[in-house]
Amino acid sequence: MPASRTERAKIWLDAAVVMVGAAMVLWFLVLSPILAEAATSSWRELTPSIVHPLLDALMLFGISVVLIQGAESAVARVPLTALIAAIVLILMGDTRRAYVINHGGSLWPSPDQATLWAAGLVMLALAPCLQVWQSRRPRPGFPRRATAPPRWPYLAVIPGYVLLMATVGVDHPYPASGLIAGTFLIATLVFARQMVAARENQRMAMTDQLTGLANRVRMYESAPRALARSQRNDTLVAVLVIDMNGFKKINDEFGHHAGDLLLIGFARLLLRCVLGSDLVVRLGGDEFAVILPDLTDPGHAQAVVQRIRSAMAVPIDLDGTVVQPSASIGVALTEPGDESIDDLLHRADTAMYDIKKRATR
Questions:
Q1: Smallest Cα–Cα separation from 34: which of 95, 106, 117?
Q2: What pLDDT, on the 0 to 100 scale, is given for residue 201?
Q3: Which residues contact 18 (CB under 8 A, 6 or more apart)?
Q4: The domain 216-360 belongs to what CATH superfamily?
Q5: Using an 8 Å Cβ cutoff, are 95 and 30 in contact?
Q6: What are the CA-CA distances from residue 194 to residues 8, 146, 154, 188, 191 (Å)?
Q7: pLDDT higher than 60, residue 146
Q8: What sequence ranges are listed for the domain GGDEF (predicted)?
């Protein structure tokens, strides 16, 4: 399962949409006719007709979770597809048999029912064979391309609405009530899923994907509020622009993976040196910014700078290679006439480059 709690929520909501869609079909074809004619049938006859399709739907739900989250390796995809096909064929066979029995047909399986069951068993037997065959195929060593979020679970909504339209105006309560409830539940699940996805998209749009810090988008959204609040409350906003020293050398000497690890470690270092109300931003490359809002004393900004310098005394481990972090830090405080975060960034950036030049002399 994905590490992200949001991703797990999306997977379970997608699988629930599939399960409810399948349950609506089973309600229309199997369960509602059973309940409508329960007075004329014994529970000995009704129980298999109810239990078999429900168990198949439960299996389909479990397989849907696996299919939606995706296989870790391409080797598993073809066998997984065969397994899905087997479950669907067996589900169709059980649904067909229950439908025939509930409409006065023979208790013995018909040829089409037997064919569906046999095909399902063949696919179940074929899945491990495909697994062995796929595992022997050579695979190119390219990274797996990121895939778009799955869209097929939302197709489960279509049969629900079609069946709902078909039962509108029917006096018998069982099909209509169940389908209306199922449609409402599906709409709720889809809405919840979209809300989860929207929040995740918003978070990703404002987060640097490597370090997890805020990016420029979030900075330009948050900084104007901090500046406006400082004017109302007669407080200060400080901006620190931080440029790492020697980053290109580490990239060239140890590779880009080590450079990424250094950026991640340095980002964590910065987070340890600030308060929860402060904003740490990756501006790009090896350049960072820290926004300190609501300061009552200009010395607080220098105290943060000192904490960062003290923290840089501890080396960062890059998968066995120990590197001493170093950075130049420029500071700017709000002044009368500052209208945007760009004014502060420009002054802090200028101060940072002055410090870097003096250090290289």
A1: 95
A2: 72
A3: 60, 61, 64, 153, 156
A4: Reverse transcriptase/Diguanylate cyclase domain (3.30.70.270)
A5: yes
A6: 14, 20, 11, 10, 5
A7: no
A8: 235-361
Q: Which two tokens stand for residue 38?
A: 């329960």
| DSSP structure string for 47-63 | HHHHHHHHHHHHHHHHH
Other Cβ atoms less than 10 A from the Cβ of 118: the count is: 12
Instruction: Show the 3-state SS of 236-277.
Output: EEEEEEEEECCHHHHHHHHCHHHHHHHHHHHHHHHHHCCCCC
pLDDT band, very low/low/confident/very high, at 124 (cuts 50, 70, 90): low
Strand ranges (DSSP E) for the chain? 236-244, 279-284, 287-295, 316-318, 321-323, 327-333
Q: Calculate the CA 299 to chain-centre distance.
A: 42
* CB-CB contact of 220 with 341 (8 Å): yes
Phi/psi class of residue 137: alpha, beta or left (left: φ > 0; alpha: ψ in -120 to 50)? beta
Instruction: Provide the 8-state DSSP code for 31.
Output: I
Q: Which residues are catalytic?
A: 286
Q: Is the pLDDT of residue 134 over 70?
A: no
Q: From CA 115, how far away is CA 232, in angstroms rounded?
A: 77
User: What are the start and end residues of each CATH 3.30.70.270 domain in the chain?
Assistant: 216-360
% pLDDT > 70, the chain = 64
Q: Which 8-state DSSP code applies to residue 154?
A: G
Residue 323: both structure tokens together: 């590197």
Contact 342, 220 (CB under 8 A): no
Across 155-164, 247-256, 265-274, the highest mean pLDDT is recorded for 265-274
pLDDT for residue 305: 94
Are residues 17 and 154 in contact, defined by beta-carbon separation less than 8 angstroms?
Answer: yes
DSSP 211: T
The token duo for 30 is 């199997």
Question: How far is Cα 305 from Cα 290, in angstroms, rounded to an integer?
Answer: 10
pTM score over 0.90: no
Per-residue confidence at 144, pLDDT binned at 50, 70, 90? Answer: very low
